[in-house]
Design a protein that fits this description.
The chain is of the alpha/beta class. It has nine helices and five strands; from the N terminus they run αββααβααββαααα. A hairpin with an 8-residue loop joins strand 1 and strand 2. Helix 3 packs across helix 6 and helix 4 crosses helix 5.
Length: 210
Amino acid sequence: MPPDVQFEQDLCAAGYQRVAGIDEAGRGCWAGPVVAAAVVLSPQVLAQPTLLAGLDDSKLLKVKQRESTYAQVLAHADGVGLGVVPAYLVDALRIVPATRLAMTVALLSLGCPVEALLIDAVKLEEIALPQQALIKGDARCLSIAAASVVAKVTRDRLMRGLAQVYPGYGFAAHKGYGTAAHQRALRQLGPCTLHRKTFRPVAEIVELFT
């Protein structure tokens, strides 16, 4: 079953009219930032979810489908916010706090008031708003699915651009994930400033170059 708006509608029935869905991309990568998005869907979408037909968990969509649904989300959202936390902060904070930071920045950059949050798997305990952490929320909740697509498309575009700055690593292809090709490039070239040096596979190679 594709994600629906049941969670949003339940919150609206409880008096919360503006609900943000939040998700991230790049949490498990060896290189590059963790990117989060917050999306407030319009009342029109909540009343007629078919306006975002085809929207699903970003991991289940092909590249062209993600690009298409990304455009649909921007057209039908009352607010979209982004948070980008670079690799050196991932190393300094560790990945879970860095993910929460990216989500918080995304929420604060929405540019519209929010009354409640629907978040994929985590809670933002420092944010004083009603919130639900939904396991596999990107597959169950339309707002979170929208955020997952925005975060994924944004991060992929960033990594394609960074591939021009850091040639040889194949970032445009693997986007910083731990593929065999990425590991070969890392062993040949050593880590660059985009790499998360506290992640074990990268840390092991860092030792070879120090």
